[in-house]
Amino acid sequence: MTGPSVWSSPNLIQDDRDKNAILEAMSEFINGRNLRGQTALLISFECAFSIETVKILLKNGADPRIPDDNGETALDLAVRNERYTELFKFFMVKITDRDLTDMTRSLRLSKR
C-alpha cells in the first residue's frame, strides 16, 4: 500500500505513514463535503463551534473558499458574522484578490 488508509471516521490515518501522505489525506478529509455540499469548516460556522475549532481546521488544510450547494463559503459566513472577525488573519493566508472582491461584495449585500 502506497498511501495512508482513509476512512469516514475520526480514525483517519493508520500509524507509521509518511507525514506528507498524512497531511494530504487530512486535507482531502477536511475539505470533503456532506450531502448539502458543506465542508467541516462550513459546518463549524453553522453549528457555532468555537473559534479554536475553526482555527484547527484552517491550520490543517481546510479551504475557506469551497462553496456549499448554495454557493456560500466560510469567507461569506465570516463576513456576515462579527463573532468570526478574528479569523480573517487566518483566512488571509489562503485567499486571492478575487476572494477579497467577493468578500467585499458579500459584506455590502449583508448590510442592506
TrEMBL record:
Record InterPro entries: Ankyrin_rpt, Ankyrin_rpt-contain_sf
| Pfam families listed in its UniProt record | Ank_2
The protein's name:
Uncharacterized protein
